[in-house]
Write a structure and sequence with these properties.
With about 180 residues, the protein is α/β, with parallel strands linked by helices. Helix content is about 55%, strand content about 15%.
């Protein structure tokens, strides 16, 4: 079984996907990690590389091709990716949502090196909103879709008040038998 986990920034996509993968004995892949790699190589922040991707389709093409290949080459894995549901349509599709204040608290608390523009909690709230707007614009332009539309998913979970462990267990409980 292939499980794709999408969702809001700060919703715990990578953490939950990693826990689900461990519990099921599956491999875990993260497009967010790959995006951070691209940002690091270019000495950009995640927000800067997201803005660059609005003009430079090669960034998304690289990420898209990796996902399509994974979906063809492997049968059982967990992928956290904003567009994984789209590129691997035969997956069990999960969307994790979170309140903006909680997302900002989580992201700001992580002190991520590639998100250095998050100098304060309020900056982090502003940057989350900018990033989401950028992604919606980019994905509408490139793919004619909105990854934040709950109708794209088999399971939608609000993680605002859930621990990562609770989130993972809810995902596993919802999987088809």
């Amino acid at each position: 079984m292939i499980i794709t986990v999408s969702g809001d920034a700060g919703a715990g996509k990578s953490t939950a996907a990693g826990l689900v993968a461990v519990k099921l004995g599956y491999r875990h892949y993260s497009v967010g990690d790959l995006m951070r790699e691209i940002a690091g190589k270019r000495r950009l922040t995640l927000l800067e590389v997201s803005r660059l991707a609005e003009r430079d389709r090669s960034i998304d093409t690289e990420l898209d091709n990796m996902q399509v290949k994974l979906g063809k080459d492997e049968d059982s894995f967990v992928l956290d990716s904003r567009l994984g549901y789209h590129f691997i349509p035969n997956s069990f599709k999960v969307f994790l949502k979170v309140g903006t204040s909680e997302a900002a608290r989580r992201i700001f608390g992580d002190k991520r090196k590639l998100e250095r523009e998050n100098k304060t909690l309020m900056d982090t709230v502003k940057n989350i909103r900018q990033r989401k707007k950028s992604e919606i614009q980019r994905y509408r332009k490139y793919y004619s879709l909105n990854p934040y539309d709950a109708g794209n998913y088999d399971l939608v979970l609000d993680t605002t008040k859930l621990t990562p462990e609770e989130t993972a267990m809810k995902i596993i409980a919802a999987l088809p038998k």
